[in-house]
Design a protein that fits this description.
The protein contains 17 helices and 14 strands. The chain is an alpha/beta fold. The radius of gyration is 21 Å and the shape is globular. The termini are far apart. The N terminus is likely disordered.
């Protein structure tokens, strides 16, 4: 969010953050009977991509948060994957065709959800409908509309309504389920448990709720609901079914982090204590979007158990591409004794949090890849792991790097910023050493 638009948005929103209480609209519907976590007709990790071309490679993408900056960088990565050709026994394909899953938070969830819905039609429609659109101004007009003053609609509900009508055309998760694209995992944060919340049917099963009828725009609004600026998106935890246990065969030696995730999932079974689930920005619990893959595999008991659960054989190459759009809003604060603006302070605090934990998350994923590939490798079928980390910090031009890292976290970009960020996403992936090694290994 930049310049005058950011100041006007804050000026409009801050006075409304106190005073009247806001009650969220509940958009998730109940299911009755017995929740089935492994029903392939539902939108979950058991879903297999029908449009996949090759079986020898599994590709997962993770899009970080960071507003339109993140959305544009992720879009550039998708473009480069689309233009990376692969030789296949049944004809040529692209590396984008081989993507099995996309996990995203906040700004990255706009790109992921749009591509999940539209596939190849994303190019160049997403650029025109989202990246070159001033969503900040659209949202401000909606929030300050006098007709809204006489309703109980909150800012997050107004944002979801805007996204639904202008970007996602009121699509629901059933529309993602019908498509032949990759599994799209939109992540938010449960403010009560402090855990990541994934918009998958397995998670909704614990709430006795139907994901397929849930609006995609609401999930994206939850994933990008920055605390203070937006209220949490609220789901109801129904008691209309017999929810299955979220995790079977628990081990006593689980890591504290994984045990916290297990405890959070188990907590949804207590319908009295957790009647409502309050969801905010997914970056609070995992700004890179990588923990969705980490927890899905670890909670299954390892890679072999996970593949057995989803009824797949191990591919010879397991590829994880992480797109990190975190910035550096605090750069230059030490040059002046003047206090930064509220907008810049929020951005700087967010960047501090992200930079401290992103490196640790990447290190954990690298270690996990080694463990997962060793788990499923055989002398007759070795499995190679590739972690491709794309980050603005790796831009070789220091001036461009500083300029793009300083783009505020919001949903308004100048035409020049869109061009630079999209081009940066393409170039960073194309010149990444691990990506080059992957392409070399894929040559016949």
């Amino acid at each position: 969010m930049s310049g005058r638009a950011r100041r006007w948005l804050l000026a409009g929103l801050l006075p409304m953050m106190g005073g009247c209480a806001t009650y969220a609209s509940i958009d998730n519907t109940p299911i009755h009977g017995s929740a089935k976590q492994h029903d392939r007709s539902a939108y979950g990790i058991e879903r297999q991509r029908p449009g996949k071309h090759q079986d020898n490679i599994t590709v997962a993408l993770a899009f970080s948060g960071g507003g339109s900056r993140a959305a544009a960088l992720a879009y550039g990565v998708l473009l480069e994957l689309r233009d990376t050709k692969l030789a296949a026994a049944n004809g040529s394909s692209t590396l984008l065709d081989e993507v099995d899953a996309i996990s995203a938070v906040s700004g990255g969830s706009f790109t992921a959800a749009y591509y999940g819905l539209h596939g190849d039609a994303t190019f160049p429609a997403f650029e025109q409908q989202v990246l070159r659109r001033d969503l900040n101004a659209d949202l401000l007009r909606r929030v300050l509309n006098p007709l809204r003053w006489f309703t109980s609609q909150g800012r997050s509900a107004a944002a979801a309504q805007l996204y639904g009508r202008t970007i996602f055309q009121d699509a629901r998760f059933v529309d993602l389920q019908k498509g032949d694209g990759p599994l799209v995992i939109i992540n938010a944060s449960d403010l009560e448990s402090g855990n990541r919340f994934a918009f998958l049917q397995g998670q909704f099963d614990l709430l006795c709720s139907d994901l397929l009828n849930f609006p995609i725009a609401d999930a994206v609004a939850a994933s990008s609901a920055v605390p203070v600026l937006f209220e949490p998106v609220v789901l109801q935890n129904y008691d209309t079914c017999r929810p299955a246990k979220p995790v079977e065969n628990l081990k006593d030696d689980e890591s504290p982090q994984l045990q916290q995730a297990i405890d959070g999932l188990q907590g949804y079974r207590d319908k009295r204590a957790h009647r409502y689930i309050h969801l905010a920005d997914g970056g609070l619990t995992d700004n890179l979007g990588l923990r969705a893959f980490q927890e899905a595999i670890d909670l299954s008991g390892g890679m072999s158990a996970f593949l057995s659960r989803v009824d797949l054989a191990p591919a010879s190459r397991l590829v994880v591409i992480s797109v990190d759009s975190s910035g550096n809003a605090g750069a230059g604060l030490g040059l002046s004794p003047r206090a930064p603006s509220i907008a810049r302070s929020i951005d700087a605090m967010s960047d501090i949090q992200l930079q401290r934990y992103n490196a640790a998350t990447l290190e954990l994923m690298q270690d996990s890849l080694k463990k997962w590939t060793a788990d499923v490798s055989k002398p007759s079928h070795p499995v190679q792991g590739h972690l491709v980390a794309v980050s603005l910090r790796d831009l070789p031009d220091p001036e461009m790097r500083a300029r793009l890292e300083a783009v505020p976290t919001g949903f308004s970009l100048s035409p020049e910023q869109v061009d630079e960020l999209v081009d940066a996403g393409r170039r960073l992936l194309r010149e990444n050493p691990e990506f080059k090694a992957l392409l070399q290994s894929l040559k016949p």
